[in-house]
Amino acid sequence: MTTDHRLPTRELAYDYMVAMHFAQQLELNLRAILYTAEYHAFIDIPLIPKQEERYKTLDGSLFIFCDIPMV
Q1: By C-alpha distance, which of 66, 4, 3, 5 is closest to 35?
Q2: pLDDT value at position 46?
Q3: What is the pLDDT of residue 53?
């Protein structure tokens, strides 16, 4: 049994790489915008239960990202 495995063309591979890089940068920028908005209390983003479990401290309380009062 022989199978024919072909690699994508160089142009297609480059276009895919550019698209993935763009998507990663877009995701990082959107995360930064959301975290900034949450930090400055422009919006209230509730945590899903999975995130609440992830951000618990050793004593079981929820880790608060920003306890610093805004001046």
Answers
A1: 66
A2: 73
A3: 74
Residue extents of the structural domains in the chain = 10-43
Averaged over successive runs of 10 residues, the pLDDT of the chain (71 residues) comes to 82 96 93 78 70 70 54 42
CA–CA dist 71, 68 (Å, integer)? 9
| Per-residue tokens: 25 | 């940068």
Specify whether the CB–CB gap between 39 and 66 falls below 8 A: yes
| Residues whose CB is less than 8 angstroms from the CB of residue 28 and which lie 6 or more positions away in sequence, other chains included | none
In this predicted structure, what is the pLDDT of residue 37?
74
Cβ burial, residue 38 (10 Å; 0-12/13-18/19+) = middle
